[in-house]
Amino acid sequence: MSVRSVCVFCGSRPGTRPEYTEAARELGTELGRRGMTLVYGGASVGLMGTVAAATLATGGQVVGVLPHFMGAREIAHLGLTELIRVDSMHERKALMATRADAFVALPGGFGTLDELFEIVTWAQLGLHQKPMGLLDTLGFFQPLVALSKHLATEGFVPEAQALPFAVEASPAALLERLQAGPTLTVTEKWLKRPEQT
Question: What average pLDDT does this structure show over 113-129?
């Protein structure tokens, strides 16, 4: 599988630690250096703005998807390769998913987790087989990794899906993992779409 575009979910705030901003910058630089396209939420603020600026600065293409009503809250980045305005959060997430070959979550808040959980759920349902990853800066996602394993231990997630994403602290290492192919493969027949059975 060849990953040419990566959808990044991350905070519209920078967080309290400078390492979060530096990791976003490193990821954007790595995407641009590899000639990959960044697909993200279209904002110029927080980690979102940092990863977009770094991708552009190193020659990468950046596609932003921003709902009209978010314009005041997540200030639109007007220097992108392509900025697409949509009417709803649902449309935003669906379009970002369509435009991406892989998904990466950086530190962020509830919106970031919402986007990540939805894309993982779609993979569980067999709606996509694209690789998913967590950029685990300063161990930010370790509580989520523990929760994922707990869900499987308690019988709410199949054991084979206990860790549906690649987890790396290095942007370069994470992108290499994503290039290796899907991080979640659904084998249960009842989860596959009719045309896949």
Answer: 94
Cβ pair 100, 5 in contact under 8 A: yes
Round to whole Å and give the CA distance between 182 and 91: 24
pLDDT of residue 90: 94
H or E stretch including 49?
Answer: helix 46-57
Phi-psi region of 134 (alpha: psi -120 to 50; beta: other; left: phi over 0): beta
For residue 111, CA distances in Å to 40, 56, 105, 138 come to 13, 24, 11, 20
Q: Give the distance from CA 27 to its chain's centroid.
A: 12
The first and second tokens of residue 91, run together, are 């449309």
Average pLDDT, the chain: 91
Structure token digits, residue 135: 């950029």
In angstroms, how far apart are the furthest CA atoms of the chain? 48
DSSP reduced 3-state for 58 = coil
Give the pair of three-digit tokens for residue 177: 């993992």
Give residues with Cβ within 8 angstroms of 155, minimum separation 6. Answer: none
State whether residue 139 is helix, strand or coil: helix
* Gap between the Cα atoms of 12 and 70, Å rounded: 11
Instruction: Provide DSSP, 93-123.
Output: HHHHHHH-SEEEE-S--HHHHHHHHHHHHHH
Tokens of 52: 């977009």
- Please state, in angstroms and as integers, the Cα–Cα distance from residue 164 to each residue in 89, 132, 182, following that order: 24, 7, 9
